[in-house]
Amino acid sequence: MPNYKLILQYDGSRYRGWQWLRDTDMTIQGKVEAVLSRCFETPVEVQGSGRTDAGVHALGQSASFCTVRDLPPKDILAALRQFLPEDIGAVDVSYAAPRFHARLSATEKTYRYRVWTTEAPCVFDRRFVYILPGNYALSTMQTASHLLEGTHDFRACSAVKTKKSTVRTLSRIAITKSGDELRFDFTADGFLHHMVRILTGTLLEIGRGDRPPESAVDLLNGGPRSASGFTVPAKGLCLMEVRYD
Amino acid sequence: MPNYKLILQYDGSRYRGWQWLRDTDMTIQGKVEAVLSRCFETPVEVQGSGRTDAGVHALGQSASFCTVRDLPPKDILAALRQFLPEDIGAVDVSYAAPRFHARLSATEKTYRYRVWTTEAPCVFDRRFVYILPGNYALSTMQTASHLLEGTHDFRACSAVKTKKSTVRTLSRIAITKSGDELRFDFTADGFLHHMVRILTGTLLEIGRGDRPPESAVDLLNGGPRSASGFTVPAKGLCLMEVRYD
Predict the structure, then answer these.
(1) What are the φ/ψ torsions at residue A103 (nearest 5 degrees)?
(2) Which residues from A are below 8 Å from B when comparing CB atoms?
(3) Which SS3 state, helix, strand or coil, does residue A199 take?
(4) Interface residues of chain B, partner chain A, Cβ below 8 Å
(5) By the 8 A CB rule, do B71 and B39 touch?
(6) Least CA distance to A131: which residue of chain B?
(7) Does residue A223 register a pLDDT over 80?
């Protein structure tokens, strides 16, 4: 039973998210499984490194799947490139170790959130950035972001109540400015549901002076959801990379 | 009668081109005139620096218009930003000299044509590049491009037969590679219909070895359309800038 690793890109604008849903064929997982099932002439189930929400994009999503038949990775890649819609791209297919699992084996992920900060038009990237004109103090946001780095209970940054652990190790937050655009890069061993979008909303509130930078610590150590800021919309979010040991 | 200068960006994917057409409201000129006419409460006619074809994009299209009433440019800009569709962006509105005309006063324009040269996915820029996997010899194309620079009769690079002069001064062609993408930048005092797309097609044929670089001269000096290469599609083309003295 060969095990494969797949790397994908997608523009999530048209989709209801990564995860297969019964009532629609507009999911990334559904589109990929449809092509692979055709390719292998039997149903193929794909495991993503994680579920991206409706409207979220990916530059480097990874997935794995096991099959009964053995087809060369280059033939699978060619089939994916031929039959996937133009807003889903297959970057690479390779054989993986038998125990490799795209989600369980992942050690670190990086997400980027993009914000367009002026009234100036943003015609070409409009599907991939959140447009929120305003003045944001970059160094203040950077100071606050360093308070969030490390191993903490991020319960306040989760959209759902859960009994599972909400402790995560956020190894790095990098905030950079490129012209009229702010980029928030988050690297962690894992993310709670909406965690990146809530952290970005909180940092934007800090950047425009609506809350003090030291208030970032309020959302650590298991504080309530109300301790953190607003949830920025899905369209500015992109899964950049998933790393494995 | 105040005269205004307008700078626009657009993603041309959905549109039938710049020029107003009777049977559709999907033209850039039509969309802009609709907002301005509402703003001035009387029909306003806009002069573009030139017509871009269906599917062609612009980063810096310019246009001019005269009105009876005098409204502050910042109010016009705000109205355009509020009412134009999200794939048309108003960059700037300013008062212009009484004799200024976006097309007649233009001294130079720059167009960029983008080609994606590998099988690798191009999910985020797919609307703005022409995907044509292949090996292209950059220095060979650059050598050929220098033969095209200068003042020549570019009749062979025009999609339409005309009795008007087909002599143009092509002051600069710059061909650069950025990752998997080739960019062809053309600067001239004016362009014939499809000229950039035919020049790019010819250079691509030279780059992949289908025609010798010195054959570029065959399409100068009034040669027939058959002297030049294929016409690359509209989606890779973008009007970058229009300059005035």
Answers:
(1) -90, -50
(2) 9-11, 57, 59, 81, 86-91, 119-124, 126, 128
(3) helix
(4) 9-11, 57, 59, 81, 86-91, 119-124, 126, 128
(5) yes
(6) B86
(7) no
Nearest-CB residue to A121 (from B57, B90, B128)? B90
* A-B Cβ pairs (cutoff 8 Å, strict): 49
Residue B53 among the catalytic residues = yes
Nearest to B157, CA basis, from B98, B209, B235, B226: B226
User: Nearest CA of chain A to the CA of B88: how many Å?
Assistant: 6
Question: What is the maximum alpha-carbon separation in chain B?
Answer: 58
Say how many residues make up chain A: 245
Residues of chain A with C-beta less than 8 angstroms from the C-beta of B32 = none
Domain B3-95 falls in which CATH fold? Alpha-Beta Plaits (3.30.70)
Average pLDDT (B92-115) is: 97
Residues of A belonging to the active site: 53
H or E element, residue A216: none
- The three-state secondary structure class of B97 is coil
Q: What is the CA radius of gyration of chain A?
A: 19
Q: Locate all alpha helices (DSSP H) within chain B, ordered by sequence.
A: 28-40, 73-83, 138-148, 195-207
Which of these is catalytic: B11, B23, B25, B53?
B53
In CATH, the architecture of A107-244 is: 2-Layer Sandwich (3.30)
Model's pTM, two decimal places? 0.92
Q: Residue A7 contacts by C-beta under 8 Å, 6 or more apart in sequence?
A: A60, A61, A62, A90, A91, A92, A93
> What are the CA-CA distances from residue A6 to residues A29, A85, A142, A232 (Å)?
12, 16, 34, 29
The residues spanned by each domain of chain A are 3-95, 107-244
A239 backbone φψ class: left, alpha, beta (φ>0; ψ -120 to 50) = beta
Helix (H/G/I), strand (E/B), else coil: A118: coil
SS3 B225: helix
**Residue range A161-208, pLDDT digits in tens:** 888 899 999 999 999 999 999 999 999 999 999 999 999 999 999 999
- Within 8 A of A128 by CB-CB distance, chain B residues are 124
Same CATH topology for B3-95 and B107-244: the answer is yes
CA distances from A29 to A54, A58, A161, A241, B123 (A): 12, 13, 25, 17, 16
Query: Which residue, among A35, A81, A123, A130, would best test binding to B if mutated, counting the most B CBs under 10 Å from its CB?
Result: A123
Rounded to whole angstroms, the Cα distance separating B202 from B229 reads: 4
Beta-carbon count within 10 A of A138 CB = 12
> How far B78 CA sits from the closest chain A CA (Å)?
9
Binary contact (A88, B123; C-beta < 8 A): yes
SS3 state at A201: helix
Per CB-CB distance under 8 Å, the chain A contacts of B119 are 81
Q: For B120, which residue in chain A has the nearest alpha carbon?
A: A91
What SS3 class is residue B38? helix
Assembly ipTM:
0.89
